[in-house]
Amino acid sequence: MNDPLIGEPLGPREFIMEQEEYKGYSTEYEFGWVWEITKDDEDYHKGGALSPSSAARNIKSMIGVFLRLGAMKNEDVEDSENLE
Predict the structure, then answer these.
(1) pTM of this structure
(2) Residue 52 gets which letter from DSSP?
(3) Structural domain spans, the chain
(4) What is the pLDDT of residues 22-53, one digit of tens each?
(5) How many CB atoms within 10 Å of residue 37?
(6) Does the pLDDT of residue 74 top 90, yes or no?
């Protein structure tokens, strides 16, 4: 990712983890790391971190949030179907 606001990456985009439809990646820049999450291989969410370990923690945490929100949304749909 070449972004004029943050400069050129210092290394390749590295795969961090995958859970269900989500995948997490991080890329090192001069200021720190940019982490990205894709859903079904499309950009979904991104953020910044000061170390590779904090980038990995952020990815893991956010994927967990997205999975819980998805589960809650599915429960809401099932509950509304039961009301009919």
Answers:
(1) 0.82
(2) H
(3) 14-83
(4) 999 999 999 999 999 999 999 999 999 999 99
(5) 21
(6) no
Q: In the predicted model, what is the mean pLDDT of residues 48-71?
A: 96
Question: Residue 5 corresponds to which tokens in the numbers above?
Answer: 């606001």
CA 25 remoteness from chain centre: 7
Cα(52)–Cα(58) distance, rounded to whole angstroms?
10
Which residue type does 65 have? Answer: V
Q: What are the C-alpha distances in Å from 69 to residues 23, 50, 62, 74?
A: 16, 27, 10, 9
Count CA atoms within 13 Å of residue 75 on its CB side: 6
Amino acid at site 53: S
pLDDT for residue 79: 54
Q: How many helices (H) and strands (E) does the chain have?
A: 1, 4
In the block, residue with structure tokens 């170390």? 51
